[in-house]
Design a protein that fits this description.
5 helices; about 25% strand; globular
Length: about 180
């Protein structure tokens, strides 16, 4: 039975804010953490992961691993590496995931898996599950405050849930954007 820990909900109005959300979550992560990203195509999963990479201080730009399935981003300094996996093209279950040796990488890295729901939960009882969805009833382009950068197409509702003993007592930082 898994324990649900901290839960946070945040409205993200732009790709820049999605990246900033990743930077804000990064200090919570440590080697051995599994982050599961769920959201439709174009939801902002890779943008969030870019922010995680920046916050973790990894070497090089974080890009989508769609065609290579997984990319390893080593740390610039003593922090953990970031292993970024796109499980979209993989079949269901852990079998194909095992071929990626994620269980070997997990103890010394932060492993982020896009499209991993129903495929990677067995890797760790503890994980951070981030669900990204398009905002329902979002404002028209330009937003209520007239800022064109708050285009309705960019507005996302993000739910961050800690699962397992690792996250049972963990607090999530203030994630809301002004």
């Amino acid at each position: 039975m898994s324990t649900t820990g901290a839960i946070a909900h945040v409205t993200v109005k732009s790709p820049d804010q999605m990246r900033e959300l990743g930077r804000r979550l990064a200090p919570l992560l440590r080697p051995g953490d599994l982050v599961l990203l769920t959201g439709e195509l174009g939801a902002g999963k890779t943008t969030l992961t870019r922010g995680l990479g920046e916050g973790l201080g990894v070497r090089g730009a974080v890009t989508s691993p769609t065609f290579v399935i997984a990319r390893v981003h080593p740390p610039l300094t003593g922090g953990p590496a970031l292993v970024h996996v796109d499980a979209y093209r993989l079949g269901g279950g852990l079998d194909e995931m095992e071929d990626l040796d994620l269980d070997v990488s997990l103890p010394e890295s932060v492993v982020v898996v896009e499209w991993g729901e129903g495929k990677v939960e067995e890797l760790s009882e503890d994980r951070l599950h981030v669900v990204i969805g398009r905002a329902v009833g979002a404002e028209a382009p330009g937003g209520a405050d007239g800022h064109p950068e708050d285009d309705v197409d960019d507005v996302r509702e993000v739910t961050v849930t800690g699962v397992g003993a690792r996250w049972a007592d963990a607090g999530l930082p203030e994630l809301e954007f002004c």
